[in-house]
Amino acid sequence: MTETLFVTGASGQLGRAVIHHLLASEGVAPGRILAGTRDPSKLADLAARGIRVVALDFEQPAGMAQAFAGVGRLLLISTDALDRPGRRLAQHHAAVAAARAAGVGHVLYTSMPNPEDSLVPFAPDHLGTEVALRESGLGWSILRNAWYQENLLMELGAALERGQWTTAAGEGRYAPISREDCARAAAAALAGKAEAGRIYNLSGPELLAMDDIAAHASEVFGRPVVAVKLDEAKRAGILVQAGLPPFIAPVLVASEANIRAGKFALLSDDVRALTGRAPAPLAATFAAIRDAGRAAA
After folding, report:
1. CA 19, CA 10: separation in Å to the nearest integer?
2. Which parts of the sequence belong to the NAD(P)-binding domain (predicted)?
3. What is the CATH code for 5-145?
4. 73: β partners
5. Which of 4, 117, 183, 297 is the most buried (most CB within 10 A)?
6. From CA 159, how far away is CA 228, in angstroms rounded?
7. CA dist., res. 56 & res. 70, Å (int)
8. What's the rounded Cα separation, in Å, for the pair 78 and 130?
């Protein structure tokens, strides 16, 4: 298979990791990979390795269609445009339309678990993009990424210091996954492993409640940590006090409410199906942070 593989958002953490795994894939030469970004200067290191870097702006539809010309398989990584309602969905609609205009053979999209039944404010962006893909006439696959394990690292240092990890998730369980495992699965899917017309649920290997997460932190770092369950208003106040932007705190609290309601309680073997290996457990991610001396990150 010699199709051209395009990765949007290539200067972001997930996009860069996907390209790293593509380069390590058998049969994927650098010349087959296109990396899209608003600022190509940020990807000079990838260009030096033979990857074609393309200027890509989700709010410039004509430029997107030109960038996608001749692309066989496209990984559409959801954008971070959460500053105003509707902006991200409009960007995704424009990208799907540009892919259709350019004759892209297959589009893969990074979504979220159960966007059709979610308390998370940005879930409609993902659901709307999935619907647009299904109705586009393009070949498509959807990668529903579970909540990243790395999202927990924002509060890990404070939790270790205080011995308490506050949450609005109650007793709810979910299966957090490492960004690296999502990237590995996305690279495999983009390189040809993903079947058309299929949704892949990319989850970690175990369903965890915050009591479990606190216990993992205690065991790995050798410091007592307990989960403290709060209502949503108190949890939001703690997050804002900790310095999170006021528009981010409600998103995190809503995500925890989604966990509490059981709407993220999804366990899947799709990562192994795509990559041939099981995803890393949270304890392993914590251990890597400990060994790198970054527990306060």
Report:
1. 8
2. 9-191
3. 3.40.50.720
4. 5, 106
5. 183
6. 10
7. 15
8. 11
Joined tokens for residue 242: 């900790």
Q: Are 172 and 265 in contact (CB under 8 A)?
A: yes
Helix, strand, or coil (residue 98): helix
- Cβ atoms of 126 and 255 within 8 Å: the answer is no
Closest of 118, 99, 117, 115 to residue 107, by C-alpha:
99
Domain ranges of the chain: 5-145, 147-177+204-267+280-297
Concatenating the DSSP letter of every residue in 125-160 gives: HHHHHHHHHHTSSSEEEEEEEPPBGGGGHHHHHHHH
Give pLDDT tens digits for 189-200. Answer: 999 999 999 999
Q: How far apart are CA 123 and CA 165, in angstroms?
A: 26
Q: What is the pLDDT of residues 98-157, one digit of tens each?
A: 999 999 999 999 999 999 999 999 999 999 999 999 999 999 999 999 999 999 998 999
Cβ atoms 54, 64 nearer than 8 A? no
Residue 168's SS3 state is coil
In this structure, what token pair is assigned to residue 287?
């251990």
Give dist(CA 150, CA 212) in Å, integer.
Answer: 16
What is the pTM for the complete model shown? 0.95
